[in-house]
């Protein structure tokens, strides 16, 4: 039986600094003919290249933390520049996918890149640093030039025509009322944002070929602060007890070159919801990831002239609504953003499946994915004892080993996080989430 591509869900820690996760990428600048092995540093032993690995690039700290002041970091564009310099010498690998990750910072603003179990304060402020993760596979064409990456960030526009003007209506410190009164329905939803982007790309194509299209959320406003929307900022924070407004945007990474004149599309598969009464309350159950993937497979098999560039599990906020005196929970995958108001309204989320693709003609005009059945495998960091887990890079060894032994074709991978609901993971007022692969 022919093996099928698999979607790897990487549950989310961000291991590594500007180095890779293990010795596989430690010394890959050796010149010579492309092969599936290289010589490990300090030995004559040939080490097989992994079928999948990664490397993280972290923004440079421009100004250290001082009393009462956060440190200053270079913007996100700087890590793409770092990656491009590295790619010029990393000629044994090619970039399979780009990923923007928000890494939790410790109290002294050090990136917690090696931990699988991370804690979010239920009181006080949580700070994060946006880093770039490159997923790498062995290079298939040794004669092609080194890849160089570019990116654009696309945010929903406002009905008034000026998103910036609307979000800057609140000078000084934002209040909870300011956040709650922002009308999110006045912002373009995801589909309208993509349509606007495609119209712009017709007039001014990207200088290259699209590699990854990812959905990202960006904090716009937070009560008690003067914070404003800045998608290029690397450092951002949120307090656990404040009202916050987030917008949903897109980040498109591309391999620079001649314009490919591509148009972007996407398909969302929302898990089926089952409502039932639980005493006086409402109980909601959701279809499993496998069931959701199965439905998405049926859609993908029927598509012609598309190239999949991203498969992403996205957290979408759920909303309670009253329909004919009946309470329902609804999920809008196209929402332009959402608000979080701790203590005022409940905050529940579900994961939806989003497939981003490029529209175009295939060589034989036939469906590329007609024989594909999407499956997934979740790699969870091994628990050593109590709240001590192996690092993300150690979990990555499980992935490489499984890909080698199973021979399963890889369609997509991602880093995602899962919140821990067990009581022993709630520590001194902190909630916890586990980063898996």
From TrEMBL:
This is Uncharacterized protein. It comes from Candidula unifasciata.
């Amino acid at each position: 039986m022919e093996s099928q591509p698999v979607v790897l869900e990487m549950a989310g820690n961000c291991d590594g600094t500007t180095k890779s996760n293990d010795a596989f990428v430690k010394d890959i600048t050796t010149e010579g003919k492309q092969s599936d092995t290289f010589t490990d540093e300090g030995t004559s032993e040939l080490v097989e290249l992994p079928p999948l690995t990664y490397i993280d690039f972290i923004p440079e700290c421009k100004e250290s933390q001082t009393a009462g002041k956060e440190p200053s970091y270079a913007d996100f564009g700087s890590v793409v520049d770092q990656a491009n310099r590295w790619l010029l010498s990393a000629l044994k690998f090619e970039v399979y996918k780009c990923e923007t990750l928000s890494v939790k910072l410790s109290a002294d603003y050090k990136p917690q890149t090696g931990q699988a179990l991370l804690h979010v304060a239920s009181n006080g402020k949580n700070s994060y640093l946006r880093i770039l993760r490159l997923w790498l596979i062995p290079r298939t064409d040794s004669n092609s030039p080194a890849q160089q990456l570019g990116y654009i960030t696309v945010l929903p526009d406002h009905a008034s025509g000026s998103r910036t003007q609307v979000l800057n209506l609140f000078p000084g410190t934002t209040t909870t009322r300011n956040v709650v009164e922002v009308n999110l329905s006045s912002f373009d939803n995801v589909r309208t944002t993509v349509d606007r982007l495609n119209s712009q790309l017709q007039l001014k194509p990207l200088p290259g070929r699209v590699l990854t299209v990812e959905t990202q959320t960006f904090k716009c406003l937070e009560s008690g602060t003067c914070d404003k929307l800045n998608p290029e900022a690397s450092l951002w924070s949120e307090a656990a007890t404040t009202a916050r407004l987030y917008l949903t945007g897109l980040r498109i990474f591309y391999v620079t070159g001649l314009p490919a004149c591509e148009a972007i599309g996407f398909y969302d598969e929302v898990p089926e919801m089952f409502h039932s009464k639980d005493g006086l309350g409402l109980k909601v159950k959701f279809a499993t990831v496998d069931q959701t993937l199965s439905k998405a497979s049926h859609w993908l098999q029927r598509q012609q002239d598309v190239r999949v560039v991203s498969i992403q599990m996205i957290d979408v906020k759920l909303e309670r609504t009253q329909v004919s005196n009946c309470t329902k929970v609804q999920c809008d995958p196209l929402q332009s953003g959402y608000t979080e108001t701790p203590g005022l309204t409940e905050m529940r989320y579900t994961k939806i499946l989003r497939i981003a693709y490029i529209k175009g003609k295939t060589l034989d005009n036939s469906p590329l994915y007609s024989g594909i059945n999407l499956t997934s495998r979740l790699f969870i960091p091994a628990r050593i004892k109590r709240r001590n887990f192996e690092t993300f890079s150690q979990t990555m060894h499980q992935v490489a080993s499984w890909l080698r032994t199973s021979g399963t074709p890889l369609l997509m991978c991602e880093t995602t996080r899962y919140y821990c609901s067990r009581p022993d993971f709630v520590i001194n007022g902190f909630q916890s989430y586990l980063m898996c692969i």
